[in-house]
UniProtKB/TrEMBL annotation:
Pfam families: Sigma70_r2, Sigma70_r4_2. Signal peptide: none annotated. It comes from Streptomyces hokutonensis. Interacts transiently with the RNA polymerase catalytic core formed by RpoA, RpoB, RpoC and RpoZ (2 alpha, 1 beta, 1 beta' and 1 omega subunit) to form the RNA polymerase holoenzyme that can initiate transcription. InterPro entries: ECF_Sigma-70_Domain, NTF2-like_dom_sf, RNA_pol_sigma-70_dom, RNA_pol_sigma70_r2, RNA_pol_sigma70_r4_t2, RNA_pol_sigma_r2, RNA_pol_sigma_r3/r4-like, WH-like_DNA-bd_sf. This is Sigma-70 family RNA polymerase sigma factor. SUPFAM superfamilies: NTF2-like, Sigma2 domain of RNA polymerase sigma factors, Sigma3 and sigma4 domains of RNA polymerase sigma factors.
Amino acid sequence: MHAHDELARRFEAERGRLRAVAYRMLGSPGEADDAVQEAWLRLSRAGGDGIDNLAAWLTTVVSRICLDMLRTRASRREDPYGDELPEPSTGELPEDEAVLADSVGLALLVVLDALGPAERVAFVLHDLFAVPFDRIAAVLDRSLPAAKKLASRARHKVRGTPVVPGAELDRHREVVAAFLAAARGGDLGALLDVLAPDVVRHAEPAALPPGVPAELRGARAVAEGTVLLRARTRFAALALVDGDVGIVVAPGGRLLLALRVTVEGGRVAAYEVIADRGRLRGVEVAVLEAGG
């Protein structure tokens, strides 16, 4: 019993890190907890004898469990979160999930969810947790060059390809960040300052409360319409959307809305709110890196 208690103590010392790894791979706190618990069951059956580096052993086991879960998810072509997303106007995410998502970054979770299982595992292990490629290759049952290629391909998708020069991208970031801050605060005056006088907003019906028109024109109408959507901004983050600065609304990292924003003359000239799932699948989202 003493040996088992010691093994449990050592496992608990690793639990937080293992959960962080699993959450970034799976994007679901519940599934991450399941993966970590399964790792404990495997460790308790195996015992600690012969394991020279328990942290590395557990990382490998958790990663393989997550990889299997991701492959099962992909083969069934299931939405891992079900068909219904949280209702932004009323509900909150469970606090634990909201904290986890904020700590990782909503945009990164959205991008990770679009990666293939092996790409996601390779990227998370190497770029987020600095696991050496020889161990990643073993987890994926791939050659060392193949593991490196998977991580590189994932990294390219995560970073995306801006379609505007760096200096222009930075200017767009400042404008869109100001727009999002004003929307979060429900600050009508700040919205009027950042919107062009002849701004146009087009939103798909699924993004709007009943009775709200899909298209609005003019700064006053668009600002007032943006305030109506304020509840959704808790789950919003800047991202690279189809190569330019935009916004994703992603409760817990689950892409609900994508905003394509057009910036002209230092103001928002137009924005489009995409809510249709079919169209969302065609939107290229990437992480907007600091400094362009």
